[in-house]
């Protein structure tokens, strides 16, 4: 899932990070233990994409209804939205450590419920529990790491949370592949997610609360004891004093300032213009389709003409690996290239990739193998009723066969060449087995195509271009573009917009492919990407290397850059 909190850090910060953590392993222990929350986030995003293939095989109702498939995916996102909201309140009231322990407990319960689910309803209930845990952990993990880390290496350590998210996605595909032959397949895939949650629960019990939260609650002795473990002896007294002053100032400002509300936010010019850029980027990050690839990658591979579940999972591993690599590449380029330029390059590549995917799926749909009456007669007792009773059965091809309902039908490819005419048969396990016994491939989610490898290239290009730019830059821009006083509330608004957009995309993708076809679905994402590119050119300022005051001046004097081909002058 592309979502969560990312922080910018260049390679010099990482060198210093390795040096300091080598000298003081306690800091690394704190960061790694909390960072498992990011691993849970990433694992859940990736694991459902593979598990869904086998859930459809086990539950006929899920296989028939795309809305059930979407619900299994998206209820976790809905739970995460609620979990993030609860997490914000819990972080303030009960502390970061307690919030992470609660998140782990919810995630573990969800994993157990999913692994033992007797029907789709229980599975969806388990997804809600997992979502609540993911939502709480996704906002608490980076916060805990940030507050328990020395300032010099804070960015690098918080960035490890982002690495663990993409690493969790990659790990989930490996786990999916490992259990493809095991009895219960998807139950193992989903159930094993409880292990890292259990590990983090044990580790967090042994770790302290965030020193900043302890100071806010007046527990200064405990906070000082933790800071003495984190900082070198010659720095600790200064850090204690700085933290005390910072917390006192924060409490004083909260007591004296009037309550912030949305109307006042929108009336403040710099905040309003910052929100347009920040919230807009978060919405476009989802609406260009990234989480259709992360949630449904194996399904997309099958739609491209690869029938085997194992093959679909293996090929999807490439996209997960490229996504993890992209998050590392972004660290190198984000402060050299700049946020805005990286977004423009990223979206340009995304548009090209989506155009290629749209073209490939159009060719796949219009050049699918025809249905042969001779081939179908080999399975005379299992002929698809819609085909045998159809007036224009001679014009039938694989695509039309897969659209048949009451009952559902599948395509049994020719034993000689899967691109030659095949048979249109009733879709059930017995017919699938009969088809495989004759050394034929069985298709129910996509048709054989000579263009399948082009679709994989399109997916790979999409991830290569998306991950370093649109994957990380929206979060970094949102961490820089708002005035300090409004940063917390504006950041929450932007993150909420991201989660809700994520939910909309996750709940609608399969329905769109069914209603308008896969080609037109990717074309729609391509059009949205063009709009996103124009939005970045016009509405998003470059914030690289600018102090907060300069960013505020820039937003105050010039919000929209309609003549984006002209070079902007910075306001001084």
How would you describe the overall organization of this protein?
- It is a single chain.
- This protein is mainly α.
- 74% of the residues lie in helices and 2% in strands.
- The chain has helices at 11-23, 25-58, 60-64, 66-94, 96-115, 120-147, 151-178, 185-191, 194-205, 211-216, 220-230, 233-256, 262-267, 269-287, 290-303, 309-337, 339-366, 373-377, 385-388, 398-403, 429-437, 452-466, 473-480, 487-516, 518-539, 548-557; strands at residues 409-412, 423-426, 442-443.
- The longest helix is centred in the first third of the chain and has 34 residues, at 25-58.
- The radius of gyration is 26 Å and the shape is globular.
- Mean pLDDT is 83; it is low at 4-8.
List the helices and strands and how they pair.
Blueprint: H1 11-23, H2 25-58, H3 60-64, H4 66-94, H5 96-115, H6 120-147, H7 151-178, H8 185-191, H9 194-205, H10 211-216, H11 220-230, H12 233-256, H13 262-267, H14 269-287, H15 290-303, H16 309-337, H17 339-366, H18 373-377, H19 385-388, H20 398-403, E1 409-412, E2 423-426, H21 429-437, E3 442-443, H22 452-466, H23 473-480, H24 487-516, H25 518-539, H26 548-557
Helix pairs in contact: 1-2, 1-7, 2-6, 2-7, 2-8, 2-9, 2-15, 2-16, 4-5, 4-6, 4-24, 5-6, 5-8, 5-9, 6-7, 7-16, 11-12, 14-23, 14-24, 14-25, 14-26, 15-16, 16-17, 16-22, 17-22, 17-23, 17-25, 24-25
């Amino acid at each position: 899932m592309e979502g969560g909190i990312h922080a910018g850090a260049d390679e010099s910060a990482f060198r210093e990070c390795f040096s300091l953590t080598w000298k003081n392993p306690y800091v690394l222990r704190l960061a790694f233990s909390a960072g498992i929350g990011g691993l849970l986030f990433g694992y859940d995003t990736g694991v459902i994409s593979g598990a869904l293939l086998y859930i459809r095989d086990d539950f006929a109702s899920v296989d028939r209804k795309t809305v059930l498939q979407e619900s299994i995916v998206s209820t976790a996102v809905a739970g995460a939205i609620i979990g993030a909201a609860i997490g914000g309140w819990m972080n303030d009231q009960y502390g970061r450590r307690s919030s992470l322990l609660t998140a782990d407990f919810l995630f573990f319960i969800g994993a157990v419920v999913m692994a033992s689910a007797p029907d789709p309803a229980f599975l969806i209930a388990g997804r809600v529990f997992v979502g609540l845990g993911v939502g709480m952990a996704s906002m608490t993990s980076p916060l805990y790491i940030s507050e328990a880390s020395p300032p010099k290496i804070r960015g690098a350590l918080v960035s490890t949370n982002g690495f663990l998210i993409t690493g969790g996605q990659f790990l989930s595909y490996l786990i999916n592949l490992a259990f493809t032959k095991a009895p219960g397949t998807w139950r193992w895939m989903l159930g094993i997610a409880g292990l890292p949650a259990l590990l983090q629960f044990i580790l967090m019990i042994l770790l302290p609360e965030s020193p900043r939260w302890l100071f806010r609650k007046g527990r200064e002795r405990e906070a000082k004891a933790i800071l003495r473990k984190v900082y070198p002896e010659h720095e600790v007294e200064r850090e204690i004093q700085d933290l005390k002053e910072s917390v006192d100032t924060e409490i004083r400002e909260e007591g004296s300032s009037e309550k912030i509300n949305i109307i006042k936010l929108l009336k403040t010019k710099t905040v309003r213009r910052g929100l347009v850029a920040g919230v807009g980027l978060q919405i476009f990050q989802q609406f260009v389709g990234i989480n259709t690839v992360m949630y449904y990658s194996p399904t997309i591979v099958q739609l491209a003409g690869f029938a085997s579940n194992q093959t679909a999972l293996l090929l999807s591993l490439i996209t997960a690996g490229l996504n993890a690599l992209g998050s590392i590449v972004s660290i190198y380029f984000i402060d050299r290239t700049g946020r805005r330029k990286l977004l423009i390059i990223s979206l340009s590549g995304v548009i090209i990739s989506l155009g290629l995917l749209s073209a490939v799926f159009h060719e796949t749909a219009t050049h699918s193998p025809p249905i042969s009456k001779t081939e179908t007669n080999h399975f005379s007792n299992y002929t698809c009723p819609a085909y045998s009773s159809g007036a224009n059965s001679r014009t039938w091809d694989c695509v039309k066969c897969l659209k048949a309902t009451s009952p559902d039908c599948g395509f049994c490819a020719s034993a000689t060449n899967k691109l030659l005419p095949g048979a249109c048969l009733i879709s059930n396990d017995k017919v699938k087995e009969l088809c495989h016994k004759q050394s034929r491939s069985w298709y129910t989610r996509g048709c054989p195509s000579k263009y399948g490898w082009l679709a994989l290239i399109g997916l790979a290009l999409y991830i290569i271009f998306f991950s370093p730019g649109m994957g990380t830059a929206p979060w970094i821009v949102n961490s820089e573009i708002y005035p300090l006083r409004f940063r917390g509330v504006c950041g929450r608004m932007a993150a909420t917009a991201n989660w809700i957009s994520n939910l909309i995309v996750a709940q609608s993708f399969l329905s769109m492919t069914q209603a308008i076809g896969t080609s037109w679905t990717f074309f729609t994402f391509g059009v949205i990407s063009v709009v996103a590119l124009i939005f970045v050119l016009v509405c998003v300022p470059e914030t690289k290397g600018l102090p907060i005051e300069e960013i505020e001046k820039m937003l105050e004097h010039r919000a929209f850059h309609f003549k984006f081909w002209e070079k902007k002058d910075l306001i001084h």
